[in-house]
Structures are given as C-alpha cells and as structure tokens.
Amino acid sequence: MEQIERIKAMEQHLNRVSQAVMRLSAALDEYAEAQTALHELETYYNSDEWKHDYDDDEAGLIPKDLKRGVLSEDAIWNVLEDSRNLNSRMEEVLNPCGDRG
User: Which secondary structure element, helix H or strand E, spans residue 101, and what is its range?
Assistant: First the structure.
C-alpha cells in the first residue's frame, strides 16, 4: 500500500473507531444510569407485590386503560435476560480470550 493510501485508510479507521467509541460511551452512560431501575424492577418482579398485582390484573381489578406491561410474565423477564446477555457480551468483547487478569 502506498503511503497516501495507507494514511487515508488509517484516517478512515480513526474516524470510524472515534465515532463508535463516542456512541458506546453515551450508551454505557445511559445503561449505567438505568441499573438502579433495573435492580428495582428485578426486586419487584421477585416480590409478593408483583404476584398480588398480577393476580389483581388477571381478576380484572386493574383499570384496563392503565399501561401494565410490567405485569406480563415475559416483559420483565425478557429485559432482565437481555441485560444479563448484554453484560456477558461486554465481558466477551473486553476479554475475548477468557483471561481473568
């Protein structure tokens, strides 16, 4: 590769990586801020309160116009599983050889 082509190619790499790093950084900031909400959601899903709310919804005691996706059996489980999978994926990206050091 000639010098000019090499510099152009490396400049493209620099721009691509810089943009990806900025986007990932913003996404990680948002994800980090959401961890408290995720923990509260998991605590709620594993609680007697959720079971009571779910049973009341099944019995028709919760207003039908109230958004209540949180009472579906899959919605919370799916987001918790997605979060666990994302955490594993980040670990694999950061540590592709499985080294723990």
Answer: none
Cα–Cα distance for residue pair 88/98, rounded to 1 Å? 11
Q: Please state, in angstroms and rounded to a whole number, the distance separating the CA atoms of residues 92 and 72.
A: 31
**42: which 2 tokens?**
């998991």
Summarize pLDDT for 42-75 with one digit per residue, the tens. Answer: 999 999 999 999 999 999 999 999 999 999 989 9
- Give residue 42's identity as a one-letter amino acid code: E
Q: What is the pTM of this model?
A: 0.73
54: Cβ contacts below 8 Å, ≥ 6 apart = 71, 73
pLDDT value at residue 101: 56
Among residues 33, 45, 38, 37, the alpha carbon closest in space to that of 70 is found at 45
